């Protein structure tokens, strides 16, 4: 499961960064470090990987979600993932409003995906591995909620300064 791989990679990078910079840490620095790695890895790198899967392994990915194969709409999902992948990677170079826009857009996209996955579970009984379970609860709900929470905390801690 790629979601677990990306979360593990994120956690390791955050831990290493916080240990390396432990003398300079503040609440804001901790939140910004976590947020940066979440945006870079969980939005950027995972978005690029999702693009690859939906674009070049389309039938395999469609089957794993419980979707019919051969739909041109899957390429639209691929390009949406590519767009967020590029935005997530660019978060390394751009900050402030760029992080906010990337996080809100990404959360909106994934909450929409969560809605569709939940609807598929309820109406179609679709419990395919990439429609239900960790991909839904972690990938489509928990990660975007965490990113939005971190953005809110960053705003709060920057305002307090």
Q: Which regions are unreliable across 5 or more consecutive residues at pLDDT < 50? A: none
Work out the count of structural domains. Answer: 1
Estimate the mean pLDDT confidence: 95
Count of DSSP strands: 0
The Rg value, from CA coordinates, equals: 17 Å
**Major beta sheet summary:** none
**In percent terms, what proportion of residues is strand?**
under 5%
Q: What would you call the structural class? A: mainly alpha
Number of helices: 6
Terminal CA distance reads 40 Å
Q: Looking at the structure, what is the overall shape?
A: elongated
Helix content: over 70%
Please explain how this structure is put together.
By secondary structure, the chain is an all-alpha fold. The chain has one domain. It is 81% helix and 0% strand. The chain has helices at residues 2-20, 27-56, 58-65, 73-90, 97-124, 134-160. Helix 1 (2-20) runs antiparallel to helix 2, helix 2 (27-56) packs across helix 3 (58-65) and helix 2 runs antiparallel to helix 4 (73-90). The mean pLDDT is 95.
Keywords:
single chain, 161 residues
Give a brief rundown of this model:
It contains six helices and no strands. By secondary structure, it is an all-alpha fold.
């Amino acid at each position: 499961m790629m979601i677990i791989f990306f979360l593990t990679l994120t956690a390791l990078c955050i831990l290493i960064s916080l240990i390396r910079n432990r003398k300079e840490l503040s609440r804001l620095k901790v939140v910004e470090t976590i947020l940066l790695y979440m945006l870079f890895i969980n939005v950027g790198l995972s978005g690029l990987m999702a693009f690859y899967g939906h674009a070049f392994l389309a039938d395999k990915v469609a089957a794993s979600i419980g979707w019919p194969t051969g739909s041109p709409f899957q390429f639209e999902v691929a390009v949406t993932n590519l767009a967020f992948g590029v935005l997530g990677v660019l978060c390394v170079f751009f900050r402030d409003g760029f992080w906010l826009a990337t996080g809100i857009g990404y959360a909106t996209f994934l909450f929409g995906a969560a809605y569709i996955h939940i609807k598929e579970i309820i109406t179609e009984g679709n419990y395919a591995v990439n429609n239900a379970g960790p991909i839904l609860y972690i990938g489509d709900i928990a990660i975007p909620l965490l990113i939005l929470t971190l953005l809110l905390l960053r705003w709060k801690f920057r305002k307090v300064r």
